[in-house]
Amino acid sequence: MNPVAIRLLNQQLVAPQFSDPAEVVSHLGAIQAQEYRLMRWAVAMRTKKPSAKAFKKAFDDGRIIRLHLMRGTWQLVTAEDYWSMLGLCAAKAIAVTKGWMSSNKISIPDDELMRIRELLAQTAADKRSVTKEDFVQALAEKDIHMDEHRLSYHIRMAELSGTLCSGDLLPMKASYALTASKVKSKGQTDRDEALKRFTQKYFQSRQPATLEDFVWWSGLNISDCRKGIELLGNAIHTERWRGRDFYLTDDCRTRGFRKDKFHLIPPYDEYLIGYKSRDIVLPPEHRHHAHNNSGIFQPIITHDGMVCGNWSPFKEDVQVEFFNGDFGAEDVQKAWKEYKKAMTN
Description:
By secondary structure, the protein is α+β, with helices and mostly antiparallel strands. The protein has three domains: 3-182, no CATH class; 191-249, Arc Repressor Mutant, subunit A, CATH 1.10.10; 262-344, no CATH class. It is 45% helix and 14% strand. It is built from 15 helices and eleven strands. It has helices at residues 3-10, 21-28, 39-44, 52-60, 79-103, 110-126, 132-141, 148-160, 179-182, 191-206, 211-218, 222-232, 270-273, 287-290, 333-344; strands at 31-32, 64-68, 74-78, 164-166, 176-178, 236-241, 244-249, 262-265, 300-303, 306-311, 320-322. The strands form four sheets. It has a four-stranded antiparallel β-sheet. A three-stranded antiparallel β-sheet has the order 1-3-2. A two-stranded antiparallel sheet has the order 4-5. A hairpin with a 2-residue loop joins strand 9 and strand 10 (306-311). Helix 5 (79-103) packs across helix 10 (191-206) and helix 6 packs across helix 7. The protein is globular and about 60 Å long. It starts with a helix and ends with a helix. 39% of the residues are buried.
């Protein structure tokens, strides 16, 4: 088994299968969207013809939704998966959020939570897309004033209740919309079916991966993760590699790998954040170049799937720093041109 090559293929980083950005998000189930400007590259680079404009259209049309979902962080999901994933993940996400509120000595009574939620929903309903500043103004008109931290928790809890979701894609800041106006309501989803689909999407796009990887990524209890794997039945199997058991689906992609390929990977990308153990592609001695212990991830460069350097996404010209391998800026010129073209097309 060559886990690096298999991950590149199934994460759609080599020989991508999809043209539509929403298809990429659907394939991965959820894509980390911490970095607002670069989440579009995280999706676009996994399509046949990378285009930030194609991503914006899918986002503005409501086929791709951004919200706080797993581990209390931002993800992209498709409108099709929105309700089932919210049903699976919201309870844990709410518990995480309340834990953070408690650590920050913020307490929001239920009556305040519901009153502010109604005002946020009404503000979003009055406009197609609203920013946090719009919420501040709307609350001020009701003589309600609160610091940004408290308001952020109110917005997050409104997201996790299915009241608010992402609005239009703006250049630099998040916007919000009334979920009812953007995502079609669906009937009750069977939890086991939702868990099975959730599990299948994780392993089909991140294989080979371990149970511990899935637990980390999903934020679910280990019992739920084990059950999700069991629900897949004969569609998934294990292979042992260097003392660890990895899960692979029976339709795993294994052909199409191309050597001498560089990738410019955005921070918080699923190529790293989709796994608890990242040593397969990131030598432990270089871990600090890719992320710190506080969960801050940096833009990275890979060569044939192995993390070997850092890059600067917002510069006019390519700026790189390699820490693993004898490479230079000239080696990533092709990848840089693909990135720049995609972000303007």
